[in-house]
Amino acid sequence: MASAESVLVLTGTFDPTADLVIEELNRRGTSVFRVDTAWFPSRLAVAAGLDGASGWTGTLATERRTLDLSAVRSVYYRRPTAPEFPAEMSAAARSVASAEARRGFGGLLSALSCRWLPPPGRAADAEYKPFQLRVAAECGLRVPRTLITNLPTAAREFADGIGAPVVYKPFTPIRGTIGGRSVAVYASVMEEGGIDHPSISTTAHLFQEWMPKAHEVRLTVVAGQLFAAEIHANSAAAEVDWRSDYDSLTYRACDPPTAVANAVRRMLEKLGLPYGAFDFVVSPSGDWTFLEINPNGQYGFIEQATGLPITAAICDYLEGLDRV
Fold first, then answer.
1. Residue 4 — pLDDT band, cuts 50, 70, 90?
2. Which ranges constitute the DSSP H helices of the chain?
3. Diameter of the chain by CA atoms?
4. 22 and 77 assigned to the same domain
5. Distance between CA 37 and CA 11 in Å, rounded?
6. Please, which pLDDT band fits residue 151 given cuts at 50, 70 and 90?
7. What's the domain range around 65?
8. pLDDT for the residue numbered 172
């Protein structure tokens, strides 16, 4: 059985970010129990009971290890995948089993009385871009002028009113395979003929004013500790969205302005999150403009390039060591 005071790591089988945290916790001698919720129910079993106000007690077990739920000190909620059910189950039965697993098994995990990074419900709320943009503005961060619409005419009016380039951004990461080739949709500057294209009417679209940039910044915050890195794009594609061309990027650690530091801490407090990966545009004059926050964003590439001790800060939080 996993020893007392274990960190429960919920993530998929392949997750280099979780690997960094697990390696550091192992180095510190902290017990770790890693599982993917996809293993439930065929490779992961749960038995838990509630008797009075003492909370849920019981076990989470794989073929090799068993975790005492009352000994979970914290949960690192990275990228677990959905429970998998036997192929012979009917579609109707699988739908019922999936809903029951989400509310029963998933509900039990969320009921564990310990700290989470991040809390799954809070993280899910914060992933809505309209919500995070509003909260960012309320907390004092500069945000781009933004339009959400499915009306081509509204998109045209927005672009004409700004009088500057307009950027389209998907609300969620869009990746897939077409003709055997991996493809992804990134932010893009709208061409003149595309801003009021009829396809806009098919779903919600997000448009923002183009912000002139000297560079961008990834600001990772862990329990109030700030780790900021400049991201310099060295290709045309990365200049629009640096995620589209990682090979062209260079990085440099930096310090955020005091006003920005205070605002991001207020934002995380308002969102109820101990962790956030913020993206900013920094103008040639030095103004910082908020683009988005990822409540569970990857950080390994920043740590590797700059040496910023983000893994250590995450492990401190999971171990209950508050540094701020």
1. low
2. 16-28, 91-110, 120-126, 129-138, 152-162, 236-240, 258-271, 300-306, 310-318
3. 65
4. yes
5. 8
6. very high
7. 6-117
8. 83
